[in-house]
Design a protein that fits this description.
Elements lengths: L6 E6 L5 E7 L2 E8 L12 H23 L8 E7 L3 H18 L3 E5 H7 L12 E6 L4 E6 L5 E6 L5 H11 L6 H9 L22 H17 L3 H32 L3 E5 L6 H14 L2 E3 L10 H13 L18
Parallel strand pairs: 1-4, 4-5, 6-9, 9-10
Antiparallel strand pairs: 1-2, 2-3, 6-7, 7-8
Helix pairs in contact: 1-2, 3-9, 4-5, 4-6, 4-7, 5-7, 6-7, 7-8
Length: 338
């Protein structure tokens, strides 16, 4: 294709973040995110409230994204959007907006899988991984080891068979009485605790798969037993509990990543997804990389959590390959992507 200026408007609305970004020739010009604080009082995302908030936020977020990018809407050459997976009501808002916007401008529509976008967040800024590279995607809904052969050629080597790592963090946080979202709070308290103070089981799964339901159950029974003898056990030991739980979850993640890197002889390793913002995980990966001679890649914090920039960069590579979709496409709550 010719060397035109490729401006892509990207929309992300898979859960409770309304985000819009403008990508120009693979460079992020703007990346706006409107958060939804309303869910905090309920201890989790309320799907209907999330979709209503998306409807309120999406137009102003897109307008500001275009303004900050300095790009007129008629200079947009394609609209990329999150098609799957996620909360169906939230996805519907973003999908309908993207389809309408693309139709109004008479430009191509690009459907993006949320998890593929998390992986491609590594290509937003330098340094960028060399192919092939392994990516550990860790979020509230997914935990996967992905082999990346090119920007659009990926293979899921292993994934969780039950709960995701992020869900395990949040559920443990709830047991400890921590506010939502609990994962970041566990990370914060863990930094002040002894990671070896308490021992929790590490699940043993075949291949590169994960299981995190066991640690949730183990922590629940542990807390119940300790509170029988000391009702204030959690308050007295919360830092050490968080550190020990985080240590165990990270250990499970690193074991599989190390196994895949060794067996496939891959030295370029990255992490992605919301949980990749966890300081303990970042530190562990960095240390493991030094020990094994890996080239380690960790996206900036703003590109780890849900954001439209990662949708846009994926849309850019799809645009180069002319991988467009038509207006008949519908969002999907759950969908395989490779």
């Amino acid at each position: 294709m010719n060397r035109e200026t490729v401006n892509i408007l990207a929309i992300e609305s898979s859960c409770d973040e309304t985000s819009a970004a403008v990508i120009q020739n693979g460079k992020v010009l703007s990346n706006l995110i409107a958060t939804q604080k309303v869910h905090e009082q309920y201890g989790g995302v309320v799907p209907e409230m999330a979709s209503r908030a998306h409807m309120q936020h999406i137009v102003p977020v897109v307008d500001v994204a275009l303004q900050q990018a300095g790009v007129a809407k008629h200079d947009i050459l394609a609209v990329a959007f999150t098609q799957a997976p996620g909360l169906i009501g939230s996805l519907l808002v973003g999908t309908c907006f993207a389809k309408s916007y693309a139709q109004a401008l008479n430009v191509p529509l690009i459907a993006v899988h949320h998890m593929q976008a998390h992986v491609l967040a590594h290509f937003i800024e330098d340094p960028k991984p060399e192919f092939p590279f392994l990516c550990l995607t860790v979020s509230g809904g997914h935990t996967q080891v992905v082999l990346c052969k090119s920007h659009l050629d990926m293979e899921v080597l292993g994934e969780t068979i039950d709960d995701a790592a992020g869900e395990a963090f949040d559920k443990v946080a709830k047991m400890l009485g921590l506010p939502y979202p609990g994962g970041p709070m566990v990370d914060k308290l863990a930094a002040q605790g002894d990671a070896l103070k308490f021992s929790f089981p590490v699940s043993e799964m075949q291949g590169y798969n994960f299981s995190f339901s066991g640690i949730k159950t183990a922590v629940l029974y542990f807390l119940q037993a300790q509170k029988k003898t000391d009702p204030d056990f959690i308050e007295k030991n919360i830092n050490d509990i968080c550190a020990s739980v985080q240590h165990t979850i990270i250990k499970m993640l690193m074991q599989k990543l190390k196994k895949a890197a060794r067996e496939l002889n891959i030295k370029h390793i990255g992490i992605a997804g919301g949980v990749s913002a966890n300081s303990g995980l970042r530190k562990s990966l960095t240390q493991l990389g030094e020990e094994n001679g890996w080239h380690v890649y960790i996206p900036k914090f703003e590109y780890c959590t849900d954001n439209a920039a990662m949708i846009g960069i994926t849309g850019y590579y799809k645009y180069l390959k002319q991988e467009f979709t038509d207006l008949s496409i519908s969002p999907t709550a759950r969908a395989a992507w490779v």
